[in-house]
Amino acid sequence: MSLEQVSTNAMFGGKQLKLKHRSSILNCDMIFSVYLPPQADSVNVPVIYWLSGLTCTDDNFVQKAGAQQFAAEAGVAIVCPDTSPRGEDVPDDPEGAYDFGLGAGFYVNASQPPWATHYHMYDYVTKELPDVLAGSDLPLDTNNCSIMGHSMGGHGALTIALKNPGTYKAVSAFAPICSPINCPWGEKALGNYIGDDKSAWEEYDTCALIAKAQEKLHILVDQGQDDDFLRGQLKPVMLQQACHEAEHPLTLRFHAGYDHSYFFMASYIEDHINHHAAALWG
User: Fold this and answer.
1) 4-281 is classed in which CATH architecture?
2) Which residue out of 33, 151, 172, 179 is catalytically annotated?
3) pLDDT value at 2 more than 90
4) 42 is catalytic
5) Is 155 annotated as catalytic?
6) How many percent of the chain have pLDDT more than 70?
7) Are 50 and 148 in contact (CB under 8 A)?
8) Among 9, 115, 122, 167, which has the minimal tally of Cβ within 10 Å of its Cβ?
9) Other Cβ atoms within 10 Å of 74 Cβ, number
């Protein structure tokens, strides 16, 4: 698979790369970012996938989270895909809303027209992007990986880890959408991408997947108590209850005064990088 280097910047002894390739799964060109720590100069390093939230691209986390410093110390790479397919022929929300279409792929495989032609972010994150990385000359140990994300990306990270036992060494999330089948964002996205059969939605719902998880991978979640979306969209108490009933290991931390922004994530990203590094290097 041919990768085009869009940009490279030295950072904390490593490199922040922006790369471009043609996606056969999404039927469009895709851009993603990779941080390579200084250890990558001598060994293939483990990979943490970061999935961003609504309206984001690969840039938001790279520029705002401050993760590279801690990734450099831990010797792990961070791979940041985009949040949806992109291009002139890729359909968007008919009303231009932020919570659906471009920037809002929800990490699912769409089955309904017109979305099914391009919107297969689940397969892109779990299949195509890892294959692209493994086939490249990047110094990555793609078989040793973990996954984390924020909001819509937190939903993506949790559901992907739960649906692929044995693939990821660790999983964590900031302010994830814990049960998209029970919130307006999720109902809109799943209804349009997947259709009216709500039983099919459960395949992309963390709380539903917890009950039948084949692997009890410890979940770390941080949530701001001043998050405007806490009760209406995110519903971490539902995740807490699902994990309790299934005896699934969960560390759920609430933080007074913190909101939904990258200011919150930057405050606790070191904990998450260390959580993943311990599993990846352990």
Assistant:
1) 3-Layer(aba) Sandwich (3.40)
2) 151
3) no
4) no
5) no
6) 100
7) yes
8) 9
9) 21
- Residue 2 known to be catalytic: no
Give 88-93 contacts, CB < 8 A, sequence gap 24+: 89/28, 89/118, 90/28, 90/118, 91/115, 91/117, 91/118
Query: Against a cut of 0.90, is the pTM above it?
Result: yes
Domain boundaries, the chain: 4-281
| Number of Cβ within a 10 Å radius of residue 113 | 8
Q: How confident is the model at residue 1 (pLDDT cuts 50, 70, 90)?
A: low
- Candidate list 23, 118, 227, 276, residue with the active-site label: 227
Which of 118, 120, 260, 272 is the catalytic position? 260
